[in-house]
Specification:
Elements lengths: L1 E5 L5 E8 L5 E7 L2 E9 L5 E7 L2 E9 L5 E7 L2 E9 L5 E7 L2 E9 L6 E7 L2 E9 L3 E8 L2 E10 L3 E8 L1 H4 L16 E9 L16
Subcellular location: Cytoplasm, Cytoskeleton, Flagellum axoneme
Function: Functions as part of axonemal radial spoke complexes that play an important part in the motility of sperm and cilia.
Pfam families: MORN
């Protein structure tokens, strides 16, 4: 069903409302028979999209409300979350940052609502990856991540004014000389191996910002 404006060729063109065969509805702008411009699309599942369309696809700025109560607000390209956006999850967690082909990818900040902890740094295809800082209530970890886990050398910086340097070692690395078939990468969380404790250093690698003095 469709009620709204049409062009001389009889195509949906301009402002209109439509009900699709599957029960979904669209109220918004059309161009040459396709959803184009601003519109609101309501899914029978309870989901809803309010934003821009281009040739029937979500494209531009838009907000998607998911049935579980989560929400994405940001850039879309060809029906995918792509560009910059904020995703608020059903459990209250949130991600603010770069998206690529529907995945968290690039630089972004993930806030864990329950603990108040915050991950600030790189993302690769939806997982934490690259240089990052994991900030907790009274300390923070600075280092590299891969597939959602810390990897290699890093340091913990405590609000008390000291640092603990060390590295994260994976179970696979710990078994030296044993030939085993490669399992799923990092199926076992890595273990932290501390090397030394120092006063807070005055310099940090260029990818990190020095912690601001508390006093």
């Amino acid at each position: 069903e469709y009620e709204g404006e049409r062009n001389a060729e009889g195509e949906r063109h301009g402002r209109g409302k439509a009900r699709l065969p599957n029960g979904d509805t669209y109220d918004g702008e059309y161009e040459h028979g396709l959803r184009n411009g601003q519109g609101t699309y309501r899914f029978t599942s309870g989901a809803r999209y309010v934003g821009e369309y281009r040739q029937n696809k979500k494209h531009g700025q838009g907000v998607f409300f998911y049935p579980d109560g989560s929400k994405y607000e940001g850039d879309w390209v060809d029906d995918q979350r792509h560009g910059y956006g904020v995703y608020t999850y059903a459990n209250g967690d949130s991600y603010t940052g770069d998206w690529f082909n529907h995945n968290r990818h690039g630089q972004g900040t993930y806030v864990y609502k329950e603990s108040g902890s915050k991950y600030v740094g790189g993302w690769i295809n939806g997982s934490q990856g690259g240089a990052a800082e994991l900030i907790h209530l009274n300390h923070r970890f600075q280092g590299m991540f891969l597939n959602g886990y810390p990897i290699g050398r890093g340091k913990y910086v405590f609000d008390s004014g000291c640092e603990q340097h060390g590295e994260y070692i994976h179970a696979e690395q710990a078994k030296e000389g044993e030939e085993e078939e490669e399992e799923q990468p990092f199926s076992v969380p890595p273990k932290w191996k501390a090397s030394d404790i120092t006063k807070v250093t005055l310099w940090t690698p260029s990818v990190e910002q020095p912690p601001s003095p508390t006093e």
